[in-house]
Amino acid sequence: MPSKQNLFTFAGVLSGSLVWGLIWFPYRALQDAGISGPLATLITYVMAILFGAFMLPRVWRERHRAGWWPLWLLLSAGWTNFGFVLGMLGGEVMRVLLLFYLAPLWTILFSYWLLGERLNHYGYLVMALSFGGAMVMLWEPQLGLPLPQNLAEWSGLSAGVAFALSNVVARRAAHMSLELKTTSVWFGTALLTVPLLWWQGGVAGQLQIIGAQQWLILGALGLTICATSYAVQYSIAHLDANRAIILFLSELVFAAVSSYLLAGEVMELRDWIGALLIVSATLLSGKLHEPERVHRD
């Protein structure tokens, strides 16, 4: 019979997968109401910071001992979340998510650069499967090189690169507390929205059109992001890599079902083939190193 701790860890990972498999829908609803993705992201992550404010005193005391690593984590994890949201708002949910899930490929490269980890035979197989899956999905003979086809797909791909970097940075900076890592993610996501909001002309006009219903959605998203962060951080600290990765892949199932039912998106055969290759690479990536201590929440 599974222990209470096992049930909590499984529930934590599944809750994170559920949230990130469905989070595109409320952000799109807010966008349809006139609230841009950057502004919605800024507000929800500021709210997450406020809900998690009890952690800030410890983070403040730790700031001098952490060195420059929180800044690296702030930038990489911040773009992980912001780029993911931008991709989901402008592109097909499953294509963006699968491009994001090329992260194991970039993890191998960053692990070699920052941690000095050498490839084993699983590493070469992960690289081959990831590249193969991307080429099957993206190949258009008339367009030449198999590259993302629009800004949304580039956002999803770059968010996956940032996700890989944030995980490697978190492993490299093992001296950082979970509180510092988590708040760095929130602050980074909020801060990276500011340049785009400034370029779009500021937030004053958009703030005026936010009604009570939209504020309720934004508040619920902020609370959900805050709570999910704790659940996921607790879970990945108590699960081995193979189990965690299998559970995290349930995000693809939640996203596939929700995008079909809520947005009418249907994947083509080559998308399914590419997805199978990328999922296989993700499953094998659990054999490359120890469990990673940060997620994009």
Task: Write a structural description.
- There is one protein chain.
- Helices cover 75% and strands 0% of the residues.
- It is built from 15 helices and no strands.
- It has one domain.
- Helix 6 (93-100) packs antiparallel against helix 14 and helix 13 (241-248) packs antiparallel against helix 15.
- It is mainly α and 297 residues long.
- The protein has helices spanning 4-22, 24-32, 37-51, 56-62, 69-90, 93-100, 103-115, 121-138, 151-172, 178-199, 204-208, 212-236, 241-248, 250-263, 269-285.
- The model is unreliable at 290-295 (pLDDT under 50).
- One of its GO terms (cellular component) is membrane.
- It comes from Ferrigenium kumadai.
- Pfam families: EamA.
Rg over CA atoms:
19 Å
Contiguous uncertain segments of 5+ residues: 290-295
H/E element sequence = HHHHHHHHHHHHHHH
Q: Largest sheet at a glance? A: none
Shape: globular
- For the secondary structure, the number of strands is 0
Round the mean pLDDT to the nearest integer and report it: 83
Number of domains: 1
Distance between the termini: 30 Å
Range of strand content: under 5%
Total helical segments: 15
- The secondary structure category is mainly alpha
Q: How much helix is in the residues?
A: over 70%
Question: Characteristics of this structure?
Answer:
297 residues; EmrE-like; disordered C terminus; 0% strand; EamA_dom; mainly alpha; transmembrane helix; transmembrane
